[in-house]
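Quick look at the format.
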Amino acid sequence: MPTVRTQGAIRNGRKTLAGGFSLVEALLVVMVILIIAAIAIPNLVHGKMRANEAAAVASVRTIHVAEAMYNNSYPEVGYSGSLANLGSNGSDCTRPTSTNSCLIMDEALTSGIKSGYVFEVVGDGNMPTASYTINASPDSGVSGRCSISSNESGDLHFSAPGTADNGGRTLGGGGGCDL
């Protein structure tokens, strides 16, 4: 007659293995992840700053084009003395005027804060306004390194904190501005 094994005999024949990771293995994985993060995070922050700086340059150029259009549309006023006048300024844009010209439809830009930069338009104070200056400066030290300015000529000027203007160059960068 054949012999039949019992349940206990089958269990006793298997070897049991400990499951999971040891503490050393877990610590090693955590250390590798921290090393990768230490390398990647500064590069991500630097990339974000460069993206903000490039967006600020594009916004300054947008403001410059809007100012030229504003000057052509309202010659009795000249250039706009504020960003709000270049936007909708709370209107529905059915009847643009010199205080709500609807030339820039980006509400963030016409509010003066966009992509980590603070934008300001300053007129010369004359009537009609014959010149203006656009200033874009980083909101904080992590949103950008370069301040950007322009005027009615359209030349862009870059400067980093504590350095002189780079002479209106639009590419390359002086003083730590490497756009």
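Next, a different chain entirely:
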Amino acid sequence: MKWTLILALCVCSCFLLAQDRNANLLIGGRIQDATGSSLKNASVKVTNEQGASFSVQANNDGSFEFTVPFDMVCQASFYAKKHQPKSIELDTRNVPKAEREWGYEFSGFIVNLTATTLPKLPEIVGRIYYDVSDESFKSVKK
């Protein structure tokens, strides 16, 4: 039991330590409601395929920023009180090793959350991935 806990903490630590701004994908955007108003106290939870996660609090204008390491697929879920959460899939696997040294940035996108009294689990509404032919990150809606 003790070793299982230590192993779990090591895995989580490695995931969190990989949040260095260099040699990663920097994600940035803004969380707002359906009218375009900023959602204060909104947050983002990023979860990798193994279940390790970290959370980021958006600032007063709903802006957020976080990094994810290369060679992984994870899910970013966007939350605000009394709003239906949404998720996007982040896929950083296809970035060529020669292109990784300085990292990449994908920012400026808007996440619109709809007000609701009974939020459900977040649904995946989009995907951000590296397009090898264009040598850049792209997004698609699902």
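Residues 1-21 have pLDDT under 50 and may be disordered.

See the schema section for token definitions.
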